[in-house]
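User: Can you help me understand a structure? I only have the sequence.
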Amino acid sequence: MALRRIRRIVVCLRKGRPGNGGVSMVLREILREAEVRAVWTTERGLKRAARRRVDALVVGGGDGTMLHAAQATMGSGIPILGINLGSLGFLTSVKAEEIGYVLPKIFSGQYGISTRSVLAANMEGSGQSWCALNEVSIAPLGGSLMVRVRVKVGGEFLSEYHADGLLVASPTGSTAYSLSAGGPLVSPQAKALVLTPVCAHAMAQRPVVVGEQEEVELSLAPAEKAALLRVDGVLAGRLMAGRALRVTVAKPTVRLMHPAGVGFYGLTRQKLGWSGSTARGLR
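Assistant: Let's start by predicting it. Here is the structure, written out as tokens:
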């Protein structure tokens, strides 16, 4: 069943991407023929542009650009459609070469919406907090090779990880940094968080999937003075000794738009090159 027709959008194409100019030209023609009004903006202007009353945000770039768009629109309810101008791009559901026949269908109402949970990270005693679509990660300071991080889940001590880093990922983030670090793929419909060590010192320390209602608490082992804190890959500050970082599921969500009939599993098969293809079904 067709959803609401798209009539007003915000467009953000990342500068410097190969093929950006060609995509822009084709996209303008598609918008003209579909009678869709568009406001064009840069990554810097996304937050202001997203305050407009629009039906969707169309983003061209890679997952980094999509994460920037997610931060700018978090909790707004505006669905984000990603055009892949990067490499793998798990968050981008449309290839650049597909826009000529996929976007007209989407603008006419033939699309799906995937609601994604967001992580909330709060630093004990500092008043600092962050939201992340993909993951919150702890890494050693420059000059250090590894870091020791103590983890509690639901108030119960789990383990002290000795690794190149440790991350807490959302189901969406399971296809990003967590995946490259050996974590599992998790459906965005799952009510879960993933704890993934990066190159753990002990082989027995494996990724752990926990319930989203279970608060995850990260703190440094007594021998550690400080570690780097990153939110969706961006340096946010430091986790200092004696303080705890608590990670839970936030109230805001992010809505991702995709072509009708192609959801998480079809995109996963396509991105990872598994047997079968969704390309024919999009025509």
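Now, to help you interpret it: Residues 20-34 form the longest helix (15 residues). The CA atoms of residues 72 and 96 lie 23 Å apart. Let me know which part you'd like to focus on.
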